[in-house]
Amino acid sequence: MGNKLIAETFGTAILVLFGCGAAVIGGAEIGFTGISLAFGLAIVAAAYGIGAISGAHLNPAVSLGMVAAGRMSVAEFAGYAVAQVIGATLGAGILYLVASGTAAWTGGLGTNGYGAGYLGEYSATAALVFEFVMTFIFVTVILGATGAGASAGFAGLAIGLTLTAIHLVGINVTGVSVNPARSIGPALFVGGTALAQLWLFIAAPLAGGAVAGLVYKIGLTRAD
Questions:
Q1: Which of 65, 116, 156, 176 has its CA 20 to 30 A from that of 54?
Q2: Where are the transmembrane segments (predicted)?
Q3: Inside any domain, residue 142
Q4: Closest Cα partner for 47 from 35, 60, 36, 59?
């Protein structure tokens, strides 16, 4: 179990550092498409790099979906979730040290948000619906791509491309979380509104992941 937790910590740090780093350091040059690819490619790298160790969940919503699907114990979920939050915080901390090294830095770390002053200024309801639905889709793809009958060796690519597509659709809505750990790490350093709105980016993805796992467990999205 120790190696699994280390892998989850390392992998989640990579996700935050690459994805949020693309937004903070290169966002003006690469735009939403580049940021979307950074998040997706980070998942691909982690999936093939540490997937054999821990499954490369990198996301409490994914781990909770595994619990609901009957593929992981509650005790394992707790360990994974703690490791993922630690990893996201480490990734955000590294990004903070790098980004703050220039006078051009505005103080952002790729935090998620909604409402007035945040990107497309979508409402809390829109953000809640988006995060729930997209996490449901994301976890459903993960369960299917790693389940019985899936094409061997392609799970990481399918999962990474799905996360890329989700970002292409939703960066302007919430910055895209679908991952409580990814939201917690940067918010801890930025504080303020990012922390005040953090509840949504914990609750909605966890609910979406849990429902995806339950739907999978009863067989509606599972290959039998």
A1: 176
A2: 7-28, 34-56, 77-99, 119-145, 152-174, 194-216
A3: yes
A4: 59
